[in-house]
Amino acid sequence: MQTPEQISPEQRSFSLEPIIHAVAEFAQECGVEAYVVGGYVRDMMRDAVRKDLDFTIVGDAVRFAERFAERMKTRAVVYERFRTALVPVGEYHCEFVGTRRESYMPHSRKPIVSEGTFEDDLRRRDFTVNAMAISLNKHDFGRLVDMFEGQADMSAKILRTPLDPDVTFSDDPLRMMRAARFASQLQFRIEDRTLAAIRGMCERISIISQERITDEFLKILASPKPSIGLGILYTTGLMKFIFPELHALGGVDLIKVEGHAYRHKDVFYHTLQVVDNVAAVSDNLWLRFATLMHDIAKPKTKRFLSGIGWSFHGHEDLGAKWQDRIFRKLKLPLHHLEYVKNLVRLHQRPMQLVDEEVTDSAIRRVIVQSGDALEDLFMLCRADITTKNHARAAEYLNNYELVYQKTLLVRERDKLMEFQSPVRGEEIMELFAMPPSRDIGILKTAVENAILEGIITNDYDAAKQYLLEQKETILAQKNAPSNRRGEVERHISEQRKEIHEQHAAKKKGKKEL
Q1: Among 130, 35, 53, which Cα is nearest to 92's?
Q2: Element of type H or E holding 506
Q3: What is the pTM of this model?
Q4: How far is the C-alpha of 347 from the C-alpha of 165, rounded, in Å?
Q5: I want to staple 27 with a disulfide (CB 3.0 to 4.6 A). Which of 17, 34, 337, 456 is the partner?
Q6: Helix (H) or strand (E) segment spanning residue 144
Q7: Beta 33-37 vs 52-58: how paired, if at all?
Q8: What residue spans of 280-389 are helical by DSSP H?
Q9: Which is nearest to 295 in space by CA: 333, 347, 332?
Q10: What is the tens place of the pLDDT at every residue in 135-145?
Q11: Residue 233: helix, strand or coil by DSSP?
């Protein structure tokens, strides 16, 4: 490790952006020592654009930020507890922090922040590639300060902690997840000693608040190749504590019956491949999350069918139901919940539509149930093809494309883009002189089902005539004894199960996707 005084003035000088020059000039006016640090320096070396700038101020960083904000005719957002401040300037977000030390008590989620030196500030950072700084001071402006050989680690594409990794991760256990995140974002390798430290103290991630864990997890999922970071979370043991449902997907199932081996792939690594496939064609974070969830209930629904093999009947429905609990546990934004549930629930449907004998009504239901996510549903289905057999993969892709084109045709022909009953609830009340009640919804749903089944066309006159003719029959059905309805529902469920097992039998002897 070098100290700032040991770094030669011949080291690389950098061309800095105007906003950084503005901070430097103001710091010199105030007689304050200042540096631009961390991610900006790292990304500048990678020729990557970055609009979030971190500045270390030797002195009162909050007061400096407030005065700088006045100079730039903006306002500082102050975080008193941590003595930091954010100053938005045009498209830039400038964060100012004083030189400090941070540490955690063994079972605390909150860091203890104390004053420190500039050297302390660099030591407290997570990785050597984030522990570099550029001087904004008049006597050595533009000089790189690299106490921990971060430049060399950048060249070698290695993630390594500035101090002993046990110390760095103990001070803030979230840094273990950040290692996975940077490995995924930068596609760097985590140094062996650093990786071993994560494995050794993975349980300590439990003291970190859920909000911080979820933020890092979503950044991994948003990275160019999410499987890198997600794989690290799994192999280090972190996944077991932050997302046990995902951790449970790991492992290969193998049963031998009468000399024949029935093997099922490792669902965790299959899922990572599917997520990478989606990431290659879409930046939609919630499509990626739905993809991560698409087989989440397979361990719970797994059973072995003699003479057929492994079955996961109903995993799509159960996985969709789990999303309510998962979203609340991870504190995910609930306005994305229905979208994710829908994709998880429907991800098997397009495969079932490949049969040439499939009815238009089945296609209509998928169109209506998927809504605006129809294209995303097919994107997930295509990504779910992970077979190494290129001929078979091409066949599956071709089948999906044929089904997709047919769904677009049916959607356009039957005017299903924003499907709902052509006869609205208010008009049903007026037509039959009925007050607002549950019966109105029953009648409206009956019209929608009749359209989806192809009984009537999707237009106002046909829908109104259907109601006039079928109203009494529809409402009479709702009064059927509950035990009879239960029998019907069980019968339908048994039929679905039988169809599923017949489908599995047809696939006997073939490799799974």
Answers
A1: 53
A2: helix 482-506
A3: 0.78
A4: 42
A5: 34
A6: strand 144-145
A7: antiparallel
A8: 285-293, 298-301, 315-330, 337-346, 349-352, 360-370, 374-383
A9: 347
A10: 999 999 999 99
A11: helix
